[in-house]
Predict the structure.
Amino acid sequence: MLADDFFLIVWDTTGTGKPRLYVPGIALGLAGALLGELVLEERVTVRGVRLQVADRQPLREYVADRVLADIGNSPQHTEVRTWLAYFAQRALPDVTGRLIRAGLLERERPKVLKRKQSRYFSTEFGQAVWPSTRLRLSLVRWQPLTTHDMALAALVDACGMTDSVVEDPANRQDARRYLTTVLAAMPQPLRDLSSHVSAAVGDAVLTYRT
């Protein structure tokens, strides 16, 4: 699932167990990824600032179906940013819970009062590093990306994490040039969604630094 891949990129589950990005930014990125899962499955559509349900048929996956039901039950709310803010409130526990239930993640709760954030560790090293490795190889080698990975690359970039994926500074300029081409070719609903995530993360950065 898109949100699972995004989490495994922005959280160091194979080392420190800590986030690689400030948690409010991760939450917004995860919220965008949860909406992206529904866009990829043609359950919702994004056009400009608006988000609407296109198909109420469940995906038979608990987290995705809960997101779809929430949107369907509140048709009066159509702005993408509204839904990003709403789902960001629970995106982290929703996605980590899904990975834990799948046996791919373990949670270490804080043992001291000064550490409020739980740490998360992958149980499968190969699966944990594959989303980041897959994106890096595609961007550096200019390989075709699936629509799923286009969305993943767009969300990672919207959260300012592309340089973390492309670790070698010597490769970053060419990778970014290719990423620009990829994003331009991405389906419009995903392009609009990623632009809203980028704006929301930017606003959160300003608040975080204030």
